[in-house]
Fold this protein.
Amino acid sequence: MSDPVFGAGLWNFASYVDRYATDGYAEPVSTLEQIRLAGEVGGLSFVDLNFPFSHGATIEDVQAALDTANLKAIGVTPDIYMRRFGKGAFTNPDPAVRAQAIDLLHEAAEAVRTLGARYVKVWPGQDGWDYPFQVNHHDVWKLAKDGMREIASAHPDLKFVIEYKPREPRVKMLWDSAARSILGIQEIGLDNIGVLLDFGHALYGGESPADSAQMLIDHDLLWGMDVNDNLRSWDDDLMVGTVHLTEVFEFFYTLKINNWEGVWQLDQFPFREDTVQTARASLRFLRALNRALDELDIDALREAQARQDAITANMLVQDALLSCMRKDD
Ligand code: FE
Ligand code: FE
């Protein structure tokens, strides 16, 4: 049994503002300081970097900080969701703003090349609507797909992953589910666009994350993942395993039986907790989960599933899952 390869979004080490604590829960943390904190966790190999970098850091500064922290870039996430894109990036009613989003994505693509990362991560959080009758549904969905096609076809040597999410910041997001992401990518018709499945987004979108993962794998589109937890009614980005113990186990079981080899990435927003400690707690949990996967009697589980025997299946899961944490160092 080998340890999984772990990563984290750099935003795990940022400070946060919400609509109440508009002074932020802590002082702002620069990109370079976030990289240093990610290195301090121990056990992380990769980070996903928000782009542009903050406090004037250049790409050389970032590369040097990554080297010092013994980290690599897995992806670059351009901030196509900030104030100027409030009414959408790809779907903004103003063509000049749409062009700005595409320009920023071109810059992010260049950063991916320079850093040797695996993909540009596209999170179109403002592409959607807030009110009934606010948009022409045909037109905005077409703009969303056309924008993705334009940027991905301009960089055939790179991969682009779309991270879907049901809502927030937009009241309703266009790329909102696993099924719609598959449909949209098929309609775009390019082979360098895939999906990053965020466990928490699937949960609060009412999906079974294991089922969503399987569906994406069956379409060769599961190119990345984020893991976290929530109370299902919001994207709380809590520490992994603190709420949905069985479902997160089924999610990783699904990845295992499909021989999915990718980075187990944290996407947590520790508003009030220490950012390094929360990451460590989640890695501790994920290592135990990985041991549990090793102990799980998969043959017996498959037999039980063939009979849809929920009782046996869950007893097998509990045997493995509830015995593995104490073995941690
Ligand atoms: Fe995420
Ligand atoms: Fe999220």
